[in-house]
Amino acid sequence: MVSTPPRVAEKSGRQYLHASGINPELRSPNQELLPLTAKVNSADRLEIGGCDVVTLVQQYGSPLYIVDEATLRTACRQYRQAFEEYYPGKTLVLYASKAWNCLAICAIAASEGLGIDVVTGCELYTALCANVSPEKIYFHGNNKSETELKLAVGSGCTIVVDNWLELETLAAIAEYSSHPVRIMLRLTPGIECHTHEYIRTGHLDSKFGFDPEQVDQVFAFVRQQPSLNCIGLHAHIGSQIFELNPHQDLAGVLVEWLEKAAEYGLPVSELNVGGGLGIRYTEADDPPSISEWVKVVSQAIAAACQSRGVHLPKLLCEPGRSLIGSSCITAYTVGAKKEIPGIRTYVSVDGGMSDNPRPITYQSVYRAAIANRMSAEHTETITIAGKHCESGDILIKDAQLPKLETGDILIVMATGAYNCSMASNYNRQPRPAAVLVCQGEANLILQRETYDDLIQHDRLPERLTIPQV
C-alpha cells in the first residue's frame, strides 16, 4: 500500500528562532528549541554564541556538538535565583551530570554556584578534576562498587545510599575513615509520572532506592552506625516531566519521612527532590518554565513543613536535561539520498545512533534545520537517516525541510542531554568533537576521536598476527 507523505507547510528554519526583542536572560531555556543566542546572519546561516555553524563544521568537522555557554549559564542562574525567591530556607542546586559529564560542563555549573550529582566513579573523578568542591558533590548509583565507595569516602563527597548491600558495605568502609561519612538515603516515594516507561523511577516497581516498608529498618540500622552521618533524604519521580502536581505529592512524602528520621535521632537536615523538569523537543512540547517548577517545589516543601511543625530543611534538587539539553545542537553533513516514489525520501548524514541513541532507544522526536540555508522554504518531507548498519538508525522521521543537497549542514536541536553522554563507537565510529561557543569565540571541550584512539586498547595475541607478504 502506497502512503501519501503529509503536506509540508511553507516554513523555514527561521520558525524555530525565538521572538525578537525579548531579553534572552528572561526566557526559560528549557522552553526553547534552539539556544538563546541563536540567530541568522547576513549570509542566511545559523549562528550560535556568535559563531557561524557552517564555519565551525569546516574547522572542527562533523558530526559536531555545539554548546552555547550563555544558555547553560542562564539556566543555572534561573534555578538558583528562583530558589532564592521562592524558598525561605537554604538551598543547593545540583547539576545531574549524567546528562553530560565532562570537565568544561562541570566547571561551568560549579562556577555558577551549583553542585554536581554523579553516578559513577569516573563521573566523580571528572568533577573533582574540574575543581568542584567535594562538599558540593553528591554520589548516586544503585550498584556502586567497593572501589567507587572508597574513592567517594576518600574524596569527602556525600554518598546517596541506594540499597542494603551498599549501606552495609559503606558502614564497614567508614569505620576506617578519620571522620564520619556524610550520607543521604534514597527512598522510593511510590509516585508515578506519565512519561516514558524506561525513564520512570519514582513508582514502587523501580530498581532505585529503599522501599517505603523498609524505612524503619533502614533508619534503625543507620542510627547504630557512628561512622555514618545521615544528613538527608532523597527521592526522584522521573524524567522529562511536564506535570507539576506530582512534586506537591512528593513534598508530603518527604516531610513525613523527615519527621520519622527525627524520631530515630538521625540528624537529617537536607531533602533532595530530584530533578526531572522536561524540555521542548518539538513545537508541541509545553514544559513549565524553570521558575514555575522551582516555585511549586519550594512552596510544597515549605507548606508540608509548616503543616507538620517541622523546621525547614536545606532543599536540594538535581536538574540535568533542563540545564544542558537546550544549550546544545548537533551539526551533521548531508550525504547520500534515496527516493522511494510515493513512499519516502531518505537523506543520510555522517552520524546517527552513535552520537544520538535516543531516537532508536526511546523513540525520541527532534527538530532539524539547514544551517547554511535558514530561510529556504520547507518543500519536502524527508526522513533523516544515520550512517550505521541498522534499519532503525533514523534520527528524524518525516522531517519538514528544504530540498537537501549533498554537503548541506543539517542541525538537530536540543541535543545537550543524553547524546554525548550516551554516545558509542558502534560500527567503530569515532565519537564527535564538542565545542563551547561564547561571544564569537569557540573552544574545543571534547576532542574528536581518531581511528588510532579506537584501537589503542585492542590487544592482538602474537599467534594471530598475520605475516606481511
Automatic annotation (TrEMBL):
* Source taxon at top rank: Bacteria
* GO biological process terms on file: lysine biosynthetic process via diaminopimelate
Q: Tell me its EC number(s), please.
A: 4.1.1.20
Q: Which reaction does it catalyse?
A: meso-2,6-diaminopimelate + H(+) = L-lysine + CO2
Q: Which molecular function terms from Gene Ontology are attached? A: diaminopimelate decarboxylase activity; pyridoxal phosphate binding
Ligand binding (pyridoxal 5'-phosphate): G276, E318, P319, G320, R321, Y418
Under the heading InterPro entries, the entry gives: Ala_racemase/Decarboxylase_C, DAP_deCOOHase_LysA, De-COase2_CS, De-COase2_N, Orn/DAP/Arg_de-COase, PLP-binding_barrel
Q: In which pathway does it act?
A: Amino-acid biosynthesis; L-lysine biosynthesis via DAP pathway; L-lysine from DL-2,6-diaminopimelate: step 1/1
What does this protein need as cofactor? pyridoxal 5'-phosphate
Q: Which UniProt keywords apply?
A: Amino-acid biosynthesis, Decarboxylase, Lyase, Lysine biosynthesis, Pyridoxal phosphate
Query: Which ranges form a coiled coil?
Result: none
Task: Tell me which residues make up the Orn/DAP/Arg decarboxylase 2 N-terminal domain.
Answer: 72-324
Q: Where does substrate bind?
A: R321, R358, Y362, E390, Y418
Q: Which CDD domains match?
A: PLPDE_III_DapDC (cd06828)
The UniProt subunit note reads as follows:
Homodimer.
Per the entry, what this protein does is:
Specifically catalyzes the decarboxylation of meso-diaminopimelate (meso-DAP) to L-lysine.
For this protein, the record's PANTHER family field holds:
DIAMINOPIMELATE DECARBOXYLASE, GROUP IV DECARBOXYLASE
NCBIfam families documented for this protein: lysA
Family listed: Belongs to the Orn/Lys/Arg decarboxylase class-II family. LysA subfamily.
What is the name listed in the Swiss-Prot or TrEMBL entry for this protein? Diaminopimelate decarboxylase
Organism name: Planktothricoides raciborskii GIHE-MW2
